[in-house]
Design brief:
By secondary structure, the protein is of the alpha+beta class. The chain has eleven helices and four strands.
Length: 249
């Protein structure tokens, strides 16, 4: 009896956290992590996760000639741009199919992350534009009445938006003292679906790393040295629940 052939082994490089070991708070790194988990759980590949600071890369990362994270290595194939990684994974491992051809869904979330970035970087001084983008998403989700953006199955669009939406929730509350309105039940229902999705929770960095990620970005509110140190030393916590005043069906 022949032994079953082991799935190919890939290597995912993501941004390192404050301790240089755990995963940092980069939402795009989590996006690729989620895609690989979906493929891995289907048995078509295996992968290891390694961390590095791209500005002071570990030797193994530098020797490969990689410059950005997330980065993917498969035998002699190497990619360090998210679009190239996703294209390669979809071509080399087409199942499960994560494609989303819903143009309405894509248009709905197109500006969400940029509105958040404008707000967190104080290009916009108030949350009006971000809230409009959140309300647009909320209306779409309530109308579609599906678990995820393109139906009840996870797609590439969810792997991109769920990490970003979770980052938005944590970062705007911590840095701007703004909370996603409790009345946006569609948005909260969608976040809750993420919090109950194994692929999301297994790939999600801790709250502290997400906050440190945004503090360390250019043009974002800087933490004091003492607060930065405090966050980096805290035991990891993971937000997975909704505020008590949020009601979802």
């Amino acid at each position: 009896m022949e032994k079953p052939v082991a799935p190919p082994l890939l290597e995912l490089w993501v941004r390192a956290g404050a301790d240089g070991v755990r995963c940092g708070g980069c939402p795009v790194c989590q996006q690729i992590f989620m895609v690989l988990l979906v493929k891995c759980d289907a048995g078509v590949l295996n992968f290891n996760v390694k961390t590095t600071n791209p500005y002071k890369p570990v030797e193994q990362f530098a020797v490969l000639g990689l410059r950005h994270v997330p980065a993917l290595v498969h035998d002699d194939m190497m990619f360090d741009e998210p679009e190239d990684i996703i294209e390669y994974l979809d071509n080399a491992f087409p199942e499960p199919d994560l494609s989303c051809d819903d143009v309405h869904a894509q248009k709905t979330v197109k500006d969400l992350f940029s509105k958040f970035c404008f707000y967190i970087k104080e290009v916009n001084k108030d949350p009006t534009q971000l809230e409009l983008a959140l309300k647009k998403l909320d209306s779409y989700l309530l109308e579609s009445n599906t678990k995820f953006l393109c139906g009840d199955k996870l797609t590439h669009l969810d792997c991109s938006i769920l990490p970003k939406l979770h980052n938005i929730r944590l970062a705007v509350e911590y840095f701007k003292h703004y909370k996603i309105p409790s009345g946006l039940s569609g948005v909260w229902r969608y976040l809750n679906a993420g919090y109950h999705c194994d692929v999301f929770t297994r790939s999600c960095p801790c709250d502290q790393e997400i906050l440190l990620h945004w503090s360390d970005r250019p043009d974002t509110p800087n933490l004091s040295a003492s607060e930065h140190k405090r966050l980096s030393k805290l035991a990891p916590t993971y937000t997975r629940s909704l505020p008590p005043d949020v009601l979802i069906e």
